[in-house]
Specification:
- With 326 residues, the chain is an alpha/beta fold.
- It contains eleven helices and eleven strands.
- It folds into two domains: 2-194, HUPs (Rossmann fold); 198-323, no CATH class.
- The protein has helices at 11-21, 43-53, 63-71, 85-103, 123-133, 152-155, 173-182, 199-211, 219-223, 242-250, 278-290, and strands at residues 2-6, 26-33, 56-61, 107-109, 139-140, 226-231, 234-238, 256-259, 270-273, 300-304, 307-311.
- It is elongated, with a radius of gyration of 24 Å.
- The protein starts with a strand and ends in a 15-residue tail after the last strand.
- The structure holds iron/sulfur cluster.
- Iron/sulfur cluster is lined by residues 83-85, 88-89, 120, 194, 196-197.
């Protein structure tokens, strides 16, 4: 008997796997990469946690599918930011369901805990998730199963319901007891995670889609830097620190060009929309210079695309703050 586990890499998904493995069921940990899981690459973390619970890890890149089918058209709306959690979970179950045959699995599990999160883990929401998934009866939440209706795996005796758990609510006490019980040493502390729940990212996303179509290549643009809306034709992203600069430098995006500080001047790496007009470029250049080690009353030569512009920074960062998305 085999099951596919939705595997976020978080503690609850690790524990759900352990509870099912204990019943002699082989579990495959399936991670769906929606592109918003964090600002850093999680592949090493995922490998480590999968190893910690002794499962094979499968990572599915669903970024395009997520944008096309979920992110901008959620049936059940958004949480407090840009997080379409009910649809997100529902689709992850659906996609896992599509993989069941390929992996010889008979049902899908997840680490969801009843009432742990306000949007997607209420009982009604969990039922909506199951309905969206098209896997009715085949979705098992081992950590809260005793509060839920009996599933097909329990009915058929593949899983013993009496060994499933009744964890509920936001307290992680029971989870910490299970960490001890299973001897888990490496795990992620709760609460980290999805950038779609970040209100600041939601502001940047709303601005982005007001003026442009959003695609996979734009995901990273949203994650780093200070964002400025300069005009309907131009968006500017200015690195805040070295890490941002390195991330922005590495972005390859047909709709943006990378702008560097003039030779010998320390300052941010920036991205500017290629659709920027000459006026937008001049304004963007002045903003960029304002965030570098520059003197306000001096002229600098800044290259943007194929133009070399003579520009002066603003007198202070306060002068540009009204254009910044906060
Ligand atoms: S927090 Fe993010 S990854 Fe988790 S269900 Fe919500 S949108 Fe999906």
């Amino acid at each position: 008997m085999k099951a596919i586990a939705l595997f976020s890499g978080g503690l609850d998904s690790m524990l759900a796997i352990k509870v099912i493995q204990e019943q002699g069921i082989d579990v495959i940990a399936m991670h769906f990469n929606i592109g918003f899981g964090g600002t850093s690459d999680r592949s090493e973390h995922l490998k480590k946690v999968a190893q910690e619970v002794g499962v094979n890890l499968v990572v599915e890149d669903v970024r395009k599918r997520y944008i096309d089918e979920v992110l901008f058209s959620p049936k059940y709306g958004y949480g407090s930011a840009f997080n379409p959690c009910i649809d997100c979970h529902g689709n992850m179950f659906k996609w896992a369901g599509e993989k069941m045959k390929e992996y010889g699995a008979s049902f899908v599990i997840s680490g969801e805990v009843l009432n742990e999160r306000p949007m997607s883990q209420r009982k009604e929401a969990m039922q909506q998730v199951e309905k969206l998934s098209g896997l009715e009866g085949l979705v098992l939440r081992p950590l809260s199963a005793r509060f839920m209706a009996v599933t097909i795996p329990e009915e058929k005796g593949w899983v013993d319901r009496s060994q499933l758990l009744d964890i509920e609510g936001r307290s992680r006490k029971r989870q910490y007891e299970l960490i001890e019980k299973y001897g888990i040493e490496y795990f992620e502390s709760p609460g980290g995670g999805c950038l779609l729940t970040d209100k600041f990212l939601a502001t940047k996303m709303k601005d982005f889609i007001e003026y442009n179509a959003f695609g996979v290549q734009d995901i990273d643009v949203l994650k780093y830097g200070r964002h400025f809306r300069i005009s309907p034709t131009a968006k500017l992203v200015v690195g805040r620190h070295q890490e941002d600069n390195a991330r922005l430098e590495a972005i390859v995006n047909n709709n943006f060009e990378t702008v560097h500080m003039p030779e010998g001047i320390i300052g941010p790496v920036s991205l500017l929309s290629k659709s920027a007009t000459p006026e937008d470029r001049a304004l963007a250049g002045r903003i960029i210079l304002t965030y570098g080690k520059t003197a306000p009353d001096q002229n600098y030569t800044l290259s943007i695309g194929d133009s070399a512009l003579q520009l002066q920074p603003f007198a202070s960062k306060e002068d540009v703050r009204s254009m910044m998305l906060l």
